[in-house]
Amino acid sequence: MPLSDEVKSYLESDALTRFLRYVQVHTTSAEETGAHPSTARQFDLSRLLEGELRELGLRDIELDEFCYLYATLPPGPGVKGRTIGLVAHVDTSPAVSGENVKPVVHENYDGESIGFPDDPNLKLTVEDSPELEDCIGDSIITASGKTLLSADDKAGIAEIMAALAAFGKFTELKHGEIRICFTPDEEIGMGTAKINSDKLPQYCYTLDGGEPGELEAECFDAWSATVNFKGISVHPGFAKNKMINAAVVASRFLASLPEYETPEHTELREGFFHLTGISGSEEEAQAKLIIRDFATANNERRMDHLRHLKDLFEFRYPGLKIELEFKHQYENMWTVMEKHPESVELARKAIEMAGVTVKQKAIRGGTDGSKLSRMGHPTPNLFAGGILFHSRKEWIAKSSLGKAAETVVHLAALWAERGA
Length: 420
Ligand SMILES: [Zn+2]
Known about the structure:
This protein is of the alpha+beta class. The chain contains nine helices and 17 strands. 30% of the residues lie in helices and 24% in strands. It has an eight-stranded mixed beta sheet, with helices on both faces.
């Protein structure tokens, strides 16, 4: 069912109002504290949201000691569809200050470069962000020049909240039960560290993607490799035919890996070996690598390559010992998703119904969605609309807030129509 103009404009303006409110709450997470949540200030936004969810009439609202906020929107009258989960994160990246964010709304964008009141040297241009070209006449929201904006992921939260508000106001909007989960610490890779996945329904979606239309259901299959080289140390004056210099052998070993399979030479669906650290001397050396690809078979091939190199080097340097250790870090969430194609299919349909072109992408990394997928909750990632995340030039168009909120409304309707 198409949405009325009234619903659309309500979604857009409600999402904007909420977004401007949420970004002003300082919620930067921190790598080094080891606490859950990593910073207590994340509770400031979670408590605010807890109150707003209560005002919107949600049930089973629970903000736990680890700063995970859960809530349930009961199904609309007569709807027997499955429960879906909507997930977004309250924290912002420690890479750029998120303290005292002052959002600026640049109305009726004219295609020129955008200035920042608190930093006259900073400019946001079409060169930085070609997406701006599609936004002429739209309103562009930026920070003031000193901080990030935190559309990642407060846009996602605002869009979910706006959809919930619309379900309360426009009772003709069809939806089944919706479970909300707002998490802390996504930016430091701990977004699911203390999540209680029993509190989530089987099918979830994160609203944490970038440009409008983005839909992500695939991520890397990820391995780490540690290579230990054990050489033979002898006084360099008397080393002929005796010494095996582990550090030298290690560098030859690493130099023989294919240069075209490194992060700096790959993109899109190409995988790689990536050296993350090397140390050693004559006696012992160690190299740490990560291995990435979308297809597990390609990573198996890379691990075999390292095994063959081990044999070759041990043959070439009699007395040298090489030890290889591989660890699986996370798997491509597609392996879970492909067993639940409707979850991605309905997301794709919902985006199209919002009038946005779907841009299905494979994430060259991991996400909370990939971790949730592994826990048995297929969780595609939907766009939230922000661009240039983790920078002082981060921005979002007002229409993107509206389109993402519309996508949520359509998604809920599609799941409701699908039945139990
Ligand atoms: Zn994010």
